[in-house]
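Supplementary Note 2. Why include the ligand at all?

Several targets in our set were suspected to adopt different conformations when bound, so apo predictions alone were not considered sufficient. For every target with a known small-molecule partner we therefore ran a joint prediction. The input for 4'-deoxy-4'-aminopyridoxal-5'-phosphate is given below.
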Amino acid sequence: PFVASIVPQAPEDPLFGLMAAYKADTSPQKVDLGIGAYRGDDAKPWVLPVVKKADDLIRSDPELNHEYAPIAGLAPLTSASQKLMLGGDSPAIKENRVTSLQTVSGTGAVHLGALFLSKFYRTVYPSTAIYVSNPTWANHAQIITNVHLPVATYPYWSPKTRGLDIDGMLSALESAPARSVILLHVCAHNPTGVDPTQEQWKQIAEVMKRKAHFPFFDCAYQGFASGDLARDAWAVRYFVDLGFELVIAQSFAKNFGLYGQRAGAFHYVSAPAAEAQDTTKRVASQLAILQRSEISNPPIYGARIVAKVLNDPGLFAEWEENLREMSGRIISMRNALRGKLEELGTPGTWNHVTDQIGMFSFTGLNEKQVGLLRSEAHIYMTKNGRISMAGLNTKNVEYVARAIDKVVR
Ligand code: PMP
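The joint prediction is reproduced in token form.
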């Protein structure tokens, strides 16, 4: 028989199905709260002014060509993204125990990390699973299972408090087999918008250190969450300071608005040790082989823009300004939505809308309410009640609040 005859129909990707339904809706009042991409107050995609400027500078270079990037990617990108993630004065960088590769955005970085662990970590610790938060970004589980690693979960979201289930999380980390891989969102957790506090991160690190767990950080929103690059990277830097061996997947999709350009990086950080420099070199050599067999060379266009901005102090300062504009607009929409709901006396508490951070809010709306918002008010969000805060603006926030009020009553 043909191979195709045994291939079953796959379910539609829920997010892309939602996008298609939104597109097909002809109501002028429709609101897209599904897609995880920034929109300005005019509901349109926003090209960051600093990205436009860097792009113009790059294009005006008469020497510009389209040769392959090195296998590990553009060196100005990888070296600057290390500093961005770990801090310019990171001892790990100074001690040459960090190795970085440019990847196909954050997805490619998560994949490369999972592939690396599947190939090497698994051979020493065969029963290793990767633990992901419940819930987590919808793509994590399939990226991990694609490389034949088992996925397990740790509790994260408490429906009762609409915040972090820190006790559940800590006890799951405690009872996981020693040397498990724990995937952690660095900031602006997707889909809940709930991040541990610094005190809670310290508790998480304490259990993980004691159990010799392996931290796998996923950083898709640095600077986009609080508007402050260092604050958003705090957890990673704290774990590095504690001497963990760890990996980081870094995306420039959201914080540069370069979604389709696929710019990102993967970092491996060795624990401090006399032989750390040598082990890091060996890791780099193996990562290069994995990269070669997967993509050969990463895409250059978005990476050039990011590298230009990260390596130019003037552009960097402008970028920070752009980040504050995006995160500030989102925070003001959180305040506006909560304010309207409280003004309307909508049943329930709404402080979680402003307590949560980043692109998303886990509203606590149930599947039925989500369905009603779509059929009655043309408001689109994922079934789990997650809304993209960037879809709200000064023109539609009251409309959305009134519609939520109606379905909650
Ligand atoms: N991890 C998380 C948690 C995310 O939310 C995203 C973006 N949705 C990514 C990784 C990667 O996205 P990209 O491949 O577009 O960088």
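The mean pLDDT is 96. The pocket of 4'-deoxy-4'-aminopyridoxal-5'-phosphate is lined by residues 36, 105-107, 110, 137, 185, 190, 218, 220, 251, 253, 259, 264 (CB under 6 Å). Comparable summaries for the other entries are listed in the accompanying table.
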